[in-house]
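Board notes (copied after class):
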Amino acid sequence: MSAGLSIAREEWRLWARSRVVLLAGVIVAVLLVVTSALTALRVADEAEARAARQASAEATFLAQPDRHPHRMVHYGHYAFRTPPPLAAFDPGVDAVTGQSIFLEGHRQNTAMFADARAGADLGGFAGLTPANIYQLLLPLLLIIIGHGVLLRERESGTLAVLLAQGQSALTLAGGKALALAGVVGAFLLPVTALAAYGAARGEPALTAALMVAGYGLYLAVWAALILAVSLWVRQRSVALGVLIFVWLLTALVVPRLGINAGSAAIDAPGKIESDLVMLAEQRKLGDGHNAADPAFAALQKQVLEQYGAEKVEELPMNWRGVVAGYSEKKLTDLMNQYAEKRMAQEAEQSRIVTLFGFASPTLAVGAASRTLAGTDLATHHRFLREAEALRFDFVQGLNDLHATKLTFADDAKRSADPEAEKRTRVNAAAWRLLDDFRFVPDPAAARAARAALPLAMLLGWLVLLGGAIVAGARRLRP
């Protein structure tokens, strides 16, 4: 048996006999098992419920009776975001962004129904997920287990004996690293099980494997940090204090600094403020419900010249429907302009926070984890864009029916003439223009590409700490 493996085996035996280590391990293991089971069950229930609600919303829309097309524009529709399989490990931003949007004409509504129910059920533990335990609690457990991994040899006097007998300092450090690597491997078993669970539910193997690899890198960074500190300081109490300080700094302080820096660097106004500014511009576009609005005078002149008509009553289509479609297009362009600006600001804030991963491996692994799970901000933004595309398509489809299936004369007097009102009802079969909506995460390759930077940060941390370990081992003397 190699010397390094013998050293690692002795460390494992020592830890197995330690009551403190066993107690801390049991506590974290229970938390991890319970939160994993609860989160997986909750996410599975939510996925099933949202899929059922999406199908129900589509069935309800298609089951509407004969109506005027514009009534269906305001009747609206719902789009739901179904949680991806790996949300069972890292729900990401899902708990705060909302999961469904009501789609209607002339408006871009915000996502609603954020996961407040879980907060009510779990109280202060609402944010406790398997990902949070891996990011915050497992490094602490590693610190408890390994902070004296080499200092114990120094304090007991065995370090000098081992080195005096010709034992290589690098071999000794390698054996201690192997011991910590064994603990990291044991810690990876739960995330591997959850990744396999996600793969069984349709998650691509690439993202599931990268999730395990990302957390393997993260825990390896902490193991390397523990070993490096143990090599560079001379007292266990000092090592423990340094490691706890680093944990507080990188896991709690730096993430808050990153969030504050992102907010300070990118001044993103709230939606209400943006909507008030947009409303002033929206009024200049004209009222799509009023075909005689002066804002549409140029359009009217253009259409009359195109069809060689003197007045809108002579047009081969319903002028009111033409105005409705034109107004919706202009309004949607304006709303998309503001929505894209807001999403770009949010994305830039998120990018700034991610860059703080150079100072905090916790931020780096969090960014990679959300991205690979399909629960990051970029995925939420894509949901908003796809839901808006669905809204615009079905609203414009109804406006096209308004323009082509109804006469201008009947449409103009339908409020006063019951017979005209009947003639402006479109057959319910026309509602089939609504497309099915099933939101799915980005392909595995796209998520892997977005996660490349935070994963590279973790690798950089590991390389840097590896150099510190080699340098610390070389300075060991009998």
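Comment from the instructor: The chain has one domain: 3-474. The chain has 19 helices and three strands.
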